[in-house]
Amino acid sequence: MTKAAELAKMGEVLTNSQIGGRRNMVINGAMNIAQRATSATGVGGTNEEYPTIDRFNFTTTSAGRFTMTQTADGPTGFANCMKLDCTTADTSISASEALILQTKFEGQDVQQLMYGSSSAQPVTVSFYVKGNANATYTLEWRNEEDGRNIGKTFNVTTDWTRVIITFTGDTGGSAVDDDNTHAFTLGIWLHGGTTFSGGTFAENTWHATNNLRIGDGQTSFFDSTDRTFFITGVQLEVGSVATPFEHRSFGEELLLCQRYFETFGGTAYQPVGMAIGTSGTRDRVNVPFKVQKRAAPTLTVSTDLIISYRVGYDQNITGTADLNISINGAHFAVDHADVGAAARPHFFNSDASSSFGTLTADAEL
Amino acid sequence: MNITNAKYMTNSDGVNTTVKATIDNIVMDIPLDPANRHYQAIQEWAKIDVNTIEDAD
Fold first, then answer.
1. CB burial class (10 A; 0-12, 13-18, 19+) of residue B51?
2. Any chain B CB within 8 A of the CB of A276?
């Protein structure tokens, strides 16, 4: 092999193999992390809900409903996929209805795309899909800061198929703010009304027109309760070449997800934080987060959590007060039935009962 | 998000630091961080005439 051929081969290997590394901008694209739950029913009734698999949520305005599960039915090389199973059909589609499966990106994580400049980079999106029958849906890459979108339709069959779509860089929009706010959305339109489909769709063309967001021949996921949609191996990378899916370890992917959502407790006697009694009926607790959050997170604190004040003696908390929440942790008061003496260190735990109790910290986009 | 009530909460220094709100039938403690999506939703909710974030006790 000549030197030139050797260098060309090396370039090909670096571009097209796992050696490249850190190519996938999507977190949890292999659907392996599901901190909230592995299955949720009746999904679709709550807009911007994160029901199960981390980093994936829905924009939804429809009477249609579905079950969402993390399912061990991936294509070769994938242990898991996301399964959506329509349980309530909606065949009367009003203009403003929508169902978009989506994952979101911070502005500081897309700076390398150089949008709004003459150097704007293309991105290539790839993923594996299948369904109960042939269908056509629309993939969309949307700049949330200037409202510009680009989209392309893709087909689903009953067999796993890898979809590969390259979107051109946007030289006509505005530069993306270098911060922690919601800048881009990668979405799949599964259902939508004429507000989003009424115009003449042009594939792979940047625009800011709402009625050009859904492609021609779009299927409605809600057209029948037979309808299913499976997806995994979601990857978004800079450039116009789709490389093999970048598999990351479970632990690494979990840490990436925990920037956006973290849960404590959930099984018997799991530590949530340290506590110190300030009166017989109140403790102050410290809950350090394992991973610094994107923004100060919303806390949801279950009253199934307990203060353990002596060996074998617990009290369920009844509420929270005096909260200070930052990207690194939370310090707040919890109230409970009288445990006697104050000013003593306690444990803040999940319970041993069947419901255990959890504390969640949500900093999702 | 379906927000049914919201009320400012103070820390031990008497400063408003969070909003306690019921969203989608779940009670949440929400920091006053403009980048927090629940806080953003509450701000939008409060723009509707009939909705008010209650003052802290």
1. middle
2. no
Residues in chain A: 365
What does the pLDDT look like over A158-193, one tens digit per residue? 999 999 999 999 999 999 999 999 999 999 999 999
Distance (Å, whole) CA A46 – CA B2: 7
The DSSP line for A196-258 is HHSS---TT--B--GGGSS-TTPPPGGG-TT-EEEEEEEEEEESS--PPP----HHHHHHHHH
What's the gap in Å between the CA of B28 and the closest CA on chain A? 5
Top residue of B2, B24, B33 to mutate, by most chain A CBs within 10 Å, is B33
Interface of B with A in 6-25 (CB under 8 A): 9-12, 17-18, 20, 24
Position A18 scores a pLDDT of 45
Closest alpha carbon within chain B to A50 = B1
Question: How far is A356 from A265, CA to CA, in rounded Å?
Answer: 7
Q: State the complex-level ipTM.
A: 0.97
Give yes or no for A361 touching B (CB within 8 A).
no
Q: Are strands A98-106 and A57-61 parallel, antiparallel or unpaired?
A: antiparallel
For residue range A21-65, list pLDDT tens digits in order: 689 999 999 999 999 999 999 999 988 889 999 999 999 999 999
Q: How many CB pairs under 8 A join A and B?
A: 61
Start-end of H helices in chain A: 3-16, 194-197, 250-258
User: How many C-beta atoms surround the C-beta of residue A103 within 10 A?
Assistant: 22
Of how many residues is chain B composed? 57
Could you tell me the pTM of the whole model?
A: 0.93
- Euclidean distance between CA atoms A326 and A347, whole angstroms: 21
Q: How confident is the model at residue A141 (pLDDT cuts 50, 70, 90)?
A: very high
- Between CA A346 and CA A355 the distance in angstroms is 21
Report residue A289 as tokens: 């987060």
Q: How far is A260 from chain B (nearest CA, A)?
A: 11
Q: Which of A46, A300, A326 sits opposite B2 (nearest CB)?
A: A46
**CA A228, CA A146: separation in Å to the nearest integer?**
33
| CA angle, A104 then A106 then A109, to 5° | 115
Structure tokens at A244: 């093999």
